[in-house]
Amino acid sequence: MNIIQKISLCFFFVLLVLIAGQTEVAAAEYRRQPQPSQPASFQSAPVIQAGVGGSVNIPFEDTDDFLDVSASVHGTLLIPLDQAIKFETDLGYWFLQAADDLDGESDDPSLLTFTGGLRFYLNQMVHLDAGMGLYRFDDWSYTHNGIVNSYDDQNKFGIYGGIGLEQFPFDIALRVHHSNFYTDDFWNIGISARFFFGSSTSRW
Fold first, then answer.
1. pLDDT digits over 32-52, tens only?
2. Digit-coded pLDDT (tens) for 125-145
3. Of the options 3.30.70.20, 2.40.160.20, 3.90.1150.10, 3.40.50.12160, the CATH number for the domain spanning 3-29+48-196
4. Dist CA 60 CA 174 (whole Å)
5. Whole-prediction pTM value?
6. How many CB atoms lie within 10 A of CB 42?
7. Closest Cα to residue 173, out of 127, 113, 122, 123?
């Protein structure tokens, strides 16, 4: 594991610790505050927000030896947990692109992700994200250095962390994903944009 991978993994764990700690602090602070009566318009707002979007995905480290920049589509649910915390669950389909410098012809693999995580809002717009889930890589055959490699479908555990900017109904995020990619590490930077339906549930 090189220095960039170590830094990225430390980033993931720091995010998780920060969000966990701030979650407890925010929850305790929110419980101590008097809860004003809410207007009917707020009470009728949907608790769960549903959204759709897409992402541009940039592989790095050893992953870019096998993959080029690709796109993905996502369906997302946001569930408010506290004043500044939301639970996010996301289903994504990635149209992975095999690298051009692979020998001969290569199929383009695909990736299905099902993840869950937390969003901690630093203010009304900026949020830190961290989560984990299932990364399902489709079967893939390619030639590298004259050797033909073939792999069946693989279900892998993956994690992500990042930062986002939300201005309802739009949301953009920058996230780093890590999983196991067939026989190697999978490292990817995703730049995503989402559109959410319904009404804002912000309590700021």
1. 655 555 444 344 444 789 999
2. 999 999 999 999 988 887 767
3. 2.40.160.20
4. 14
5. 0.73
6. 13
7. 127
